[in-house]
Amino acid sequence: MEFTRLNETHKKELKSMVAPDRFSTGDSNLDLHSRDQSHHEAFRPEAVIWPVSGDEVSAILKYANQHLIPVTGWGAGTSLEGNPIPIKAGLVLDFSQMNHILSVREEDFQVDVEPGIDYKTLNEALRHKGLFFPPDPGASATIGGMIANNASGTRTVRYGSTKDHVLRLSVVLADGEMIEMGTRASKTSSGYDLIHLFVGSEGTLGIVVQATLHLTGLPEEFSAAVVTFPSVEVAGKAVFGIIRSGLDPAMLELLAPECVDLMNREKGLGLDVSPTLLVEFHGPTKTQLADVMEIAREICQEEDCFEFRPALGREERDQLLKARHELGEMLRRNHPDRLTMAMDVAVPITAYPELIAMARKETRNAGVPAYVFGHAGDGNIHVALMRKAEDQRETEIIEGVSHRIVEKALSMDGTATGEHGVGIGKRKYMETEHGRSLEWMKKIKAVFDPNGILNPGKVFP
Amino acid sequence: MEFTRLNETHKKELKSMVAPDRFSTGDSNLDLHSRDQSHHEAFRPEAVIWPVSGDEVSAILKYANQHLIPVTGWGAGTSLEGNPIPIKAGLVLDFSQMNHILSVREEDFQVDVEPGIDYKTLNEALRHKGLFFPPDPGASATIGGMIANNASGTRTVRYGSTKDHVLRLSVVLADGEMIEMGTRASKTSSGYDLIHLFVGSEGTLGIVVQATLHLTGLPEEFSAAVVTFPSVEVAGKAVFGIIRSGLDPAMLELLAPECVDLMNREKGLGLDVSPTLLVEFHGPTKTQLADVMEIAREICQEEDCFEFRPALGREERDQLLKARHELGEMLRRNHPDRLTMAMDVAVPITAYPELIAMARKETRNAGVPAYVFGHAGDGNIHVALMRKAEDQRETEIIEGVSHRIVEKALSMDGTATGEHGVGIGKRKYMETEHGRSLEWMKKIKAVFDPNGILNPGKVFP
Questions:
Q1: CB < 8 Å to B414, chain A
Q2: Domain boundaries A221-322, corresponding CATH code
C-alpha cells in the first residue's frame, strides 16, 4: 500500500477540522510522537492532532481514508513494543485532551471514560467511592492505550486483564463511521463479541473514543510479604506452588537480584539482594489472610526460601509496589547511554520454572546489562536487555537472546506477548504462534480497514 | 441464498465420509434433531451425521460448502431460543460421539475436550482433582453448545460465563479449513482475539471440534441460605443490595412463589411459598463465610425479608440446587399440553428491581401460566410463558409480554439475551441493541461463511 504524504492542502484541511492550536507540524511535537518507551527506531509523523470529540476523530479518519493518509492513535507513549510509533508517517491522534471521566455509575460498578485518561488518575478519582479499575500496567498508561494493547500487570493474576473489564466501546472506524458496541448488562449472549475483537487490536481496526469499564470493589484487607530465595529458578518453583494451591494471590511478582539491587539503590529499600517474590493477598478479614499467608509460607519454605517476611505495613507495601512500578524508568535512568528492550512472553504456569531457568542462563551469558522480572503468577516473564544505540554487535546479542526466549515460550504452548502487544517487535512470531488463524485475522483487518490506514506496519508480519 | 436439497448422490457421498451407522436420514433421527427445548417451530434436517473427528467435520463442511448445503451443529438440544433448529434443513452434525476428555493438565488448571461432552460429566470427572468448569447452565448442555451460546448460569455471578474460561479452540470453517486459535498461557496480547469472536457465535462462523478450558479450584467451603420476601420486587432490591456490598456471592437465584410452589410439589422441598432468594457464598474458611452471611442477613432484613434461613447443610443445598436446575423440565412436565417460551434478558444491576416489578406486572395480567425466576446476581431474568401449541391468541399474548420485557431491558441499557443466545427469537432485537455495529457483525459473517451455510437463519434479522 502506497500512502500519501501530507501536502499543504491536506494540512490546511485537517487543521480546519480542529482548533488551530490542536494541530501541529512542529519539530518538537513530531519528535515527541516518534517513539514510545521501547528500543525501536523512532519515526516522526507528519502532523499531530489533539482531538476533543468522537466527531472530530470521525471527520479526520474519513478524510485520511479518502486520501490514504496513515493514522495512529497515541495515549501516553508508554508502550514497549513500538505499538504507537508511526512508522509510515501520516497523522498521530494524541488523546491527551480527551481525558475525562464522563460518568461514574457507582452502584453498577461502572465508569464511562474518554480514552486519554490515565489509569492512575482514574483510580485516584474512584478511590473514595471504594472502587478501582484493576489492570495495573505500572507505567502511566492511558485507558485507550490499555484497551489497544489489552494491558495487564501486577494485579492481573487475580483480577484479569483489560479485556475482562470492558463493557462498551465507541469506536471510530477507518472510514470515519462511529459504532457503539457492548451493553451495560454484566453478561450477554447477543451477537458477535466485537468488544473483544477491538480490545488488543492495537489501533489497527478502529480508534476507541469512549469506553465503559467494569470496576471492582477495593479489597477490605490486604496482606503482603517479601520472600527471598537462593536462586531465581527456585523462586519460579515457589510461584508454581502458590498458583497450584489455589490461594488466589492478588500479586505475585518475581524480581531477580539485579532488580532488587537497582531498587535498593534508587529507593533506599534495604532489601536483601537475592531473588525475590513480592506476594500479596486480598480478602475480607485479617484472620483469613493470616491463614492464607501461612500456607504461602509453607510452600516457600518447602522450596528452601532464605527468608519469608510477612505482615508488611501499608507504607512499606506501597513503597515496594511503587518501586516495582518504576523499575522500567530506573532501568532507563541507570543506563542513559543504552536503549531498553523489555521483552515479554507468557507460558502456562507448569512451564514457568523451566522458562525462568532458561532466561537466566541466557542473560548470564549475554554480556550486556540484563534484568529478569515478571508477573510470575500469570506465567509472564520480562527480560530487560540494554544495548548501546549504535552498537550492531550488542543489537545482535539482545535480539538473539530475545528470539530464543520467545521461541522457548512458544514451544511450551505459550504466547509471544503476554501484555506488551505485538507492535513492531513481535510481528515475526505471529505465523508461528497463530498458524493459519493469522490469515483470518488479516481478513478481519481487511474488512475494517481496507486501505490499511490504521496504525500500518503493526501486528502483522 | 438458495440452498441445495440433498439428492441421492449427496447422501451417498456424505455417507461415505463417515461410517455407515453414523449417517442417518431416518424419520426418528430427523425428528430428534428438529427442535430444542424452546417453543420455536420444529424443522427437520435432511440428514444427521455423527462425526468422530475434526477431519470428518472438515471433509463434510468442504463438501457442504461446495454444494450449498446448510450445516448446523448439535450438542444436546437443550437450548432455549431455537439456536440449533435446522430451519433451512440440510445437515445436522450431532457431536454426541465426540465427547471425550482428551487430557487434563491438572497443574495448569486446564482440560482439553471434544465439544460433545456435557458439562456435568466433565465436572464429575474433574471433581476428584479438586477442579471444576464453573459455568453452570442447569440443563445437560454440552461444552460445544455452551461455547456456541456463551452459556452461563447459577455460578456466573462469581465465576463468569463460558467466554471467560476458553483458552484455545480448534474450529472447522465453512470451507472445511481447520484453524487453531488461542494459547495455554493464562494471558496474551498477541493478535486479534478470535476466541471471543467464536464463543457465542452460535455455530454461524465455524464449528468447534476441540476446546481447551481453564478450570477453577473447587471452593474450600460454602455457605448457603434461603431467604423469603413479601414480594418479588422487594427481593430484587435485596439482590441489588448484596451485589452493591461487594460480598461476591457464588449464587444469587431469584424464584417467584409460583416457582417455589412447583419445586415443592415436584420435590417435596417444603419451602415457604413466597418470593425467595437462594444465596450462596464460597470462601476459604467457615468463619469468614459466617461473617459474610451475617452482612447478607442485615441487607435482607433491611428490606424486611420474611425469613433468613442460613447454614443449609450440603444435602439440603444440593437438593435445592438440583430442583432449581430441573425447573425448566418441571415446567414442561407440568404443562404437557403447552409450549414454553423461556425468555431471557439481562440489565445492569441498578435496573433489576424495576425490571422485576415490570415483569411481575406483565405476568400477573397475562392470563397464561407464567413463571418468573432468574440469575438475579447478574441482573438476568427469565420469564417462562406457557402457551397452547395451536392457540393463536395465547401466542400473541406471550409474544407481547416477551416483547415488552425485552424492550424494557434494552431501554435500560441491558441486553436482549443474557445467556440463551439470539437463535430465532431474538433476531428482531439485534438492530435495536447493536445499531450500526450489527452491519459489521454481518461483514464478519460474510468473511468466514460467504455462502451462508453455517446455521442459516440465526442471529441476524
A1: 183-185
A2: 3.30.70.3450
Q: Please state which of the four CATH numbers 3.30.450.20, 3.60.110.10, 3.30.70.2740, 3.40.1190.20 is assigned to the domain occupying B328-422.
A: 3.30.70.2740
Quote the distance between the C-alpha of residue B36 and its chain's center.
Answer: 12
- With contacts defined as CB-CB under 8 Å, which chain A residues touch B285? 287-288, 291
B179 contacts in A (CB within 8 Å)? 435-437, 440
Q: Which residue of B has its CA nearest to A246?
A: B217
Q: Which band of pLDDT confidence, cut at 50, 70 and 90, is reported for residue B359?
A: very high
- Please name the member of A200, A284, A413 whose beta carbon is closest to the beta carbon of B189: A200
CA proximity to B116, closest of B128, B134, B105, B102 = B102
pLDDT tens, A271-309? 999 999 999 999 877 888 888 899 999 999 999 999 999
Rounded to whole angstroms, the Cα distance separating A133 from A217 reads 9
pTM (2 decimals)? 0.96
Level-2 CATH architecture, domain B98-217: 2-Layer Sandwich (3.30)
Could you tell me the pLDDT band of residue A203, with boundaries at 50, 70 and 90? very high
306-335 of B, contacting A, C-beta below 8 A: none
| A201 to chain B: closest CA residue | B192
**Which residues does chain B have within 8 Å of residue A178's beta carbon, measured at their own beta carbons?**
436
What burial letters (b/e) apply to A62-85, b meaning 16+ CB within 10 Å? bbbbebebbbbbbbbbbbbbbbbb
* B349/A107 touch (CB, cutoff 8 Å), yes or no: yes
The reply to whether A413 touches chain B by the CB within 8 Å rule is yes
3-state secondary structure (DSSP) of residue B210 = strand
Judge if A98-217 and A328-428 fold alike in CATH terms.
Answer: no
What is the tally of helices (H) and strands (E) in chain A?
Answer: 16, 18
Is residue A380 less than 8 Å (CB to CB) from chain B? yes
Class of CATH domain A328-428 = alpha beta
Among the listed residues A6, A141, A114, A100, the one whose alpha carbon sits nearest the alpha carbon of residue A60? A6
Would you call B288 and A292 a contact, using CB atoms and an 8 Å cutoff? no
C-alpha cell at A131: 472502587
**A443–B443 C-beta distance less than 8 A:** no
**Residues B376-395: pLDDT tens digits?**
999 999 999 999 988 999 99
CB atoms within 10 A of CB B180: 17
Residue contact A196–B201, C-beta within 8 A:
no
Determine the 3-state secondary structure of B67 from DSSP: helix
**Confidence grade of residue B291 (pLDDT, cut at 50, 70, 90):** confident
Cβ of residue B337 closer than 8 Å to a chain A Cβ: no
Q: Supply the CATH classification number for the domain B221-321.
A: 3.30.70.3450
What residue spans define the domains of chain A? 98-217, 221-322, 328-428
Q: Does A418 touch chain B (CB under 8 A)?
A: yes
